[in-house]
Amino acid sequence: MADRRQTRNQIRGPHSALTDFLASNNISATQIHQNHQRRLREAEHQTTVEELENNIEEDDEYQHVGELPAEMKKRKRKEVVALVKIKQSKEFARRKARRMGEDGDEAIAREMMNERSQPLPGQLENCEACGKRFTVTPYSKTGSKGGLLCAKCSKALADDEKKTRAQKRGTRSGRRQNQSNLLDGLAQQGALSLVEMCTKKVADNINHIEEFGDLPSQLLHRLSQILCKRRVLTPRTLDLFLRPGLNSIDIYDAAKLETHDFEKIFAFMPDLYRVNIRFAGQMKDKVIEYMLGRNRKLKDLQLDAANLVSDTYWRLLFQKLGPRLESIKLSNLDCSLDDETIDVMCRSCTTLRRLKLKQCWKAGNNSLQAISSLMSLEHLSLNWVQDVDNEILLGTVSSVGPRLQTLSLEGFSNPNDRLLEAVHDNCLALTKLRFSHNANCTDRGFVRLFTDWTNPPLENVDFSSMCDMDNTNPEGPADAIGLASQGLVALMNHSGSMIQKLNITSCRHVSRSAFEEIFSDEKMYPHLKELDVSFHTVIDDYIVGRMFRCCPKLQKLVAFGCFNLRDIRVPIGVALIGGPKAQAPIIPVVDF
Amino acid sequence: MSASTSSQPEYVTLVSGDGFEFVVPRSTACVSGTIRRMLDPSSRFSEAISGRCALENISGVVLEKVCEYFCYHQKNKNQTHVPDMDIPPELCLELLMAADYLDT
């Protein structure tokens, strides 16, 4: 144990049990460490082994300049003995076997001898980088040329390594993020646009930004979207968005804003013609009063959850701004905006082209009746909480129907096939039709709606949750209720050429053969981008494969609860959401 | 179209407001819609003829980052789940303005 002897100059304390055990089994910690160091060095020098070997002779000459011939002879003899010893060692045999005869015995033995002459922990050595003399420790790092480094240089090297590693982690986009993007329907290929990347970066550093300068308004809009999604739109960050020259503001999450912040918006931006404020919980009567006093240009108003505004002020607002308003979107209002207010709105806002009322608890039949008097309405979206009278709804659809481009009726559970008939007879210019959560319309009603309908093909269709809700009869009645096989076929025949978005979630009485017919070989839906077929248990891998083939522009396929999907191969650029596996294998389109 | 592009030089020069010049492959520079339209031979703009785009309102530091993005974009062309490029925070607003101008 030559190694042991060399450590004689060290102070020795009591042995631990482990050390004793290792010693009894002929395992030495020093040797393990040494082997480790050697392996490190070997890895570094694998490519330059040849060179090293060639240099050995020269090194010898250089190192031993000036020694006497006798000394030289002695040294050579020792060397030969050492080499013979090495050649007999186990380590040598192991190494030779590993190299598979690439090098000669002599070369390997010499290499090993050279390694042994490397200083061990506890010895002194000159640092490879700075040349200082230092004590070798087990923590001394190997420098770029194979020599050891002093404590200071070792630390610098370790720091560098750490830094590069940290940077790598920073730029890597994690699996979790990828899945999150996929759920958002982002399966795009290649890098994000530089604008998008910078916008995200700006949002990351929003607290260090003092002003946006003259960013164009569409970028401000995007920034607002990101900040609101992260819920960091505070009074401080709001100030960044207030610029007198702009004429629109979008705040998707105003929950952290106080009353005076809303006033500030209208104080700084008197030219606003488009206001979109959601979660406006602190918006009060006096804000509306302030707005009415300053703003004279408002055309487009969207407010969400502004529950502290009283009916009196809603009416005042409609009366004052009425003739100018072109678009009103109000949602989540549960203690104001009653029938009378909506009546005032409909009488004052005579040029209204777009109206959306969602979850306004107080609006009922009379409101619906009032809406039928809006003669310039082009887009109507209603999501009613109260039950409505079928006749009144029919009357409204008949009177505003002919001009409508958008008709969205959510949560109306009473209407039956007569509503579909009214749509068939009156609506002639629709591009978007939503009618969801209803269990009274029948499949035959849908067939009639889409047969010989003078309306041009629809672009955006949502018939989600149109199904019979009888739990005791999961297959549904024989005469299918809701959108079922025939209705869907009729829909695709009518609108297939232009359709871009289709949502038929939970219309569970559509049969597999209907899907086969819709997505058969000769069918093509050239514009279909988004398709939601969640909870259609008849859909299987074959049907989905047909879908990918028939819809060349498909970007997003939502398939929650489609339990027959097993092994889908998703084309590049399509986001499959809710499939059986979190990440379905992605294949290039050419495989189809 | 392909005949005319093949006759054009392979590299174009982008000049920043403070006089730095960046010589980049034409295909990468055309990641930017603005530069692509500048260089479109059918436009007969002087940029298209000389292959040299002077971007007066973009500083050298920012333009360097933009060129880095061009290469990054080219490199990640047909890949999914591309990691974001590293953008120093102090540069992000200026870079955002430049990116908006360049339609990138």
From TrEMBL, chain A:
Start-end of Basic residues biased regions: 165-175
InterPro entries noted in UniProt: Leu-rich_rpt_Cys-con_subtyp, LRR_dom_sf, Znf_Tbcl_Rhp7
Alphabetical GO biological process terms: SCF-dependent proteasomal ubiquitin-dependent protein catabolic process
GO cellular component: SCF ubiquitin ligase complex
Region span, Disordered: 161-182
All residue ranges annotated as the DNA repair protein rhp7 treble clef domain in the record: 121-158
Pfam family, one: zf_Tbcl_Rhp7
UniProt cross-references to PANTHER family, sorted A to Z: PARTNER OF PAIRED, ISOFORM B-RELATED, RNI-LIKE PROTEIN
Name of this protein: DNA repair protein Rad7
TrEMBL record, chain B:
Residues in coiled coil: none
Predominant location: nucleus
SKP1 component POZ domain sequence ranges: 11-74
Keyword match Nucleus: yes
Stored InterPro entries: ELC1 (IPR039948), SKP1-like (IPR001232), SKP1/BTB/POZ_sf (IPR011333), Skp1_comp_POZ (IPR016073)
Pfam families documented for this protein: Skp1_POZ
Database matches in SMART domains: Skp1
Similarity section: Belongs to the SKP1 family.
Name by which UniProt lists this protein: E3 ubiquitin ligase complex SCF subunit sconC
Organism per entry: Aspergillus ellipticus CBS 707.79
